[in-house]
Amino acid sequence: MALPPLTLALSKGRIFEETLPLLAAAGVGVPENPESSRKLILPTDSDALRIIIVRASDVPTYVQYGAADFGIAGKDVLHEHMAQHPGGLYQPIDLNIARCRLCVAAPEGFDYQAAVRQGSRLRIATKYVRAAREHFAAKGVHVDIIKLYGSMELAPLVGLADAIVDLVSSGGTLRANRLVEVEEIRQISSRLIVNQAALKMKGERLQPFLDAFGRASSAMA
């Protein structure tokens, strides 16, 4: 009897697109594009693997609880997830894909550095609550964290927050909304994550994918 395929959890967009070369390095092609398909479970041209499409923030949950054997998630997502769900995930490889940076951004004309020096209490809008809280605590800056799930750039424009903590790639969205990057918190890339039980029970089947992904990501570093 044929074994059921391994399940890889991915999110749409940049991570999916930049994972395709890694899958190709493992000898796997994906015939369907999740941007044009309504399917949430995508077959591949290999009987050994299928892909499930989930929200980026949900990838670690699907992997940790065994609904997916492995997945790819940004360090930003993993940092937030592990604060509430420690353990259960093995993170063997930094894939060097979907690179960006986690930054503090503020409206043009707002003197962020002066506010920090003067000990002002800042209102910070972000969905990266743990990262923001740790960053400002390390600087000794008092902040009120306002958790948002999207349209972060709007918060300072309408007076909801003094600044935001968000991911920045090209900076185009910030510029379009008259915001400027005032501080970098950390560089972000995406990691391969593996369910620890799957690694024990299905290690022989998973290892070729881990090896191929590792070689491909090293070549891109």
Briefly, what is this?
It catalyses: 1-(5-phospho-beta-D-ribosyl)-ATP + diphosphate = 5-phospho-alpha-D-ribose 1-diphosphate + ATP. The protein is 35% helix and 29% strand. By secondary structure, it is α/β, with parallel strands linked by helices.
Structural summary, described in words:
By secondary structure, this protein is of the alpha/beta class. It has two domains: 125 residues, Periplasmic binding protein-like II (D-Maltodextrin-Binding Protein, domain 2, 3-Layer(aba) Sandwich); 88 residues, Periplasmic binding protein-like II (D-Maltodextrin-Binding Protein, domain 2). The protein has nine helices and eleven strands. Strands 2-3-1-4-11-5 form a six-stranded mixed sheet. A five-stranded mixed sheet has the order 8-7-9-6-10. The protein is elongated. The mean pLDDT is 93.
Note the topology.
Elements: E1 6-10, H1 14-25, E2 41-43, E3 49-53, H2 59-64, E4 70-74, H3 75-84, E5 89-94, E6 100-107, H4 112-117, E7 122-126, H5 129-139, E8 143-147, H6 154-157, E9 163-168, H7 172-176, E10 179-188, E11 190-195, H8 196-201, H9 203-220
Parallel strand pairs: 1-3, 1-4, 7-8, 7-9
Antiparallel strand pairs: 2-3, 4-11, 5-11, 6-9, 6-10
Assembly context of the chains: single chain
Secondary-structure element order, as H and E?
EHEEHEHEEHEHEHEHEEHH
The overall strand count is 11
CATH architecture of the largest domain, please?
3-Layer(aba) Sandwich
Q: What fraction of the residues are assigned to beta strands by DSSP? A: 25-35%
Name the poorly predicted regions.
none
InterPro entries: ATP_PRibTrfase_cat, ATP_PRibTrfase_CS, ATP_PRibTrfase_HisG, ATP_PRibTrfase_HisG_short
Domain ATP phosphoribosyltransferase catalytic: 55-211
Subcellular location: Cytoplasm
Family: Belongs to the ATP phosphoribosyltransferase family. Short subfamily.
